[in-house]
Amino acid sequence: MFFPPQIEDTIGFTRIRERLLSFCFSPVTREWVEKLSPFSTIEQVERALQEVQEFAEMDQFDGLPRFRNFPDIRPQFQILRISGSFIQTKGWLDLLSVLDLACENKELAQERNIFPKYPFLNPYFQKLGSWGPVKKRIEKVVSPEGLVQDMASQKLQQIRRQIRRLREDILDAIQALLDSSRVAPLLQERNFTIRRGRYVIPVKASHSHLVKGIAIDYSSSGSTVFVEPEKVFQLNNQLDRLKLAEEEEIRRILLELTDFVRPLTDELEQAFYTLVGLDFLQAKNKVARAIGGQFPQIGGEKLTIIQGRHPLLGERAVPFSLEVNPENPVLVVSGPNAGGKTVLLKSVALILYLTYCGILPPLKAGSSIPFYQGIFVDIGDHQDLENNLSTFTFKMTLLKQAFASNRELKGTLFLLDEIGAGTDPDEGSALGMAILSYLRDQGATCLATTHLPGIKFGLDNQPGMVSASLEVDPISLQPTYQLSLGKVGVSLGVEIAKRVGLPAKIIEEAQENLSRERWDLNRLLLSYTQKSQELDRLLQNYQVRQQNLEREKAELERLKLELTREKRKFQQKLHRELTEYLEDLKIEIADKVGKLRKEKTLDEEVYQTLRSAIKKEEKELARIDLENEGNSNFPSFQIGEEVTIFHLQQSGRIIALDLKKKEATIQASQGRVRAPLSSLRKKSPAEQTEAEQAVRNHSFSSVVRVRSKSRVTPEIEIRRLNKEEALGKLEKYLDQAVLAGFQKVYIIHGKGEGILRKATHEFLQEHPQVDSFRLGDAAEGGAGVTVVTLK
User: Fold this and answer.
1) Percent of the chain at pLDDT exceeding 90
2) Which of 1-10, 96-105, 694-703 bottoms out in mean pLDDT, i.e. has the lowest?
3) Considering only Cβ atoms within 10 Å of each terminal Cβ, which end of the chain, N or C, has fewer?
4) How would you classify residue 307: left for phi > 0, otherwise alpha for psi between -120 and 50, otherwise beta?
């Protein structure tokens, strides 16, 4: 990927790099930031952005990894790769701090179940490794203060014990001399010190010959001689030998520890660079979060930036949206001085540069960033005094270098600020248009800014070229920094000069010198801008009202649906309560009818009228239910499905459907029943399984009798009852069955001696609601069952 020299200074990326550096926890990460540059392939860019995106998601949902400052341990890796070398205690402390950080983040990833949730971050956490045994071994040898601990070896412990004991002997010997009445007067002061690693006493120079011992050192004034007493000489020598032994043992221990870790060098290096990589990602994530970065689509030929912002301006940045496609690869922006044209080009350049460096850029979802082969940037005022080049000459020289680089311009983005400026306006316009045409014909993409009328108004008859304007307020003439595609902007140079405070006479003469056509043109453009902005405001207000209406419509639909649901719930509850009420009423009536029949005071005409009224109420209930719920709310029934009939409390299989009448014919256990669709409920798989099991286990073999939860069923059992009990129960049951609407019922009296069968048949012959009866066939239970058909 090609970029011109000094591009980072030109577009302001150096300040982004400074922010990244401030967020790093390791000096190695800071080296990575210093070397950060755009990736060379689209795959690398996409992966880098995916990693930062997942890091941001992990930050939001699972929290950040644990980070603190950690050292550069690359020198330790060099030592580990040299046989016979060993790491000093300071190096072990640095290594231990890195291993602590690696272990903490590995455990954190396991606790938060990071691995399956973030596939692009997963390799980082996997490579951190597990370092528990290594940490324990290091901590046993090296103390937090950076010293080799006594317990590192038995020999070291023994040597240090001898050293401590010997030092006590030396101190005792010296103290005896200090307290001696013979030696004390000869001393400069009654104290001892250590010079050149030897214990000595300060003797006056004039009396040094009176103290037996060796002069080890002298004071700077020469008045004091530091003498190693003869009594201490041998003890000091022994101490030196023990210190040498201690150093040798420490060296052996550190070499042994180094050899223990040496085979793990590659894994240690991998864990370290993984921490550096995570540190790099968290720095990128902090920058992306600070600038409002989001993931754009990468690739394709169309540059689409939605609500892009300059990443360094913070809250002051005015969002802009633009699109440059292969059909119109040249976009020329005009507008007033200080209206934001240069900032716009820098914003585009920074957004692309951030993206190519793997940092989420400040834009909104739906944006698309092509992977350009290079970006040529000519922004700002350039002069090269050493080579006697003016701004115009310098700009032309840069373009010449870009064109003569033996590089295809197709797939390259050119960002040209003030194209054609710095020379005669007519020549600059002609040259600028020629450059834009050349770039278009070579397949390049170009974003340019200009004040030149010859370029601004020369785009209309040029294919593939589109104009855009950075708007001004037509009343106050202040820039709004809003980018509008398809418009031409006014420069307002005289107006800006007036605003900055040039003398009024200069402004008046400038306005007089300005051609009438130019003045009228500027007024016309401002008028057009005012009307265009007014139309934009009206359109925006219309869109807002439209959105409000859509929201209100959606809310009404929601309320309507909610009311429909509540109505349905109420209807279902009412239906259930009325059904239960009718069932209870039928049972209560049946009980009273039974009593009246026993007392022979039953008025059959009243009884039939009551039955008809109940039937009418049931039909009316079904009709109202069907009417209220409507066809669309019924489940779709099919022939062969198992259903339950609410008001009859019967179950069976649908054998016919009449959708016009909204009725179904059901083969129930006691015969065929016609019922409205509103009174049917599909049986659940569990209920169907229960019914099938009941059929298999029933003593009547193939007779399908599904037990209902209702108080009344199409069968009654009177076995093992005496005659009086059986007939009383049967009388009550038949009244309930009639009111329940059963056409056929089964009386199970058993075979036995036939006493209950005979009594039952005699009772049925006299019952007014019995149409006929017979013994059951073999499949229905034979002589142990009487099948009754009710009127």
Assistant:
1) 39
2) 694-703
3) C
4) left
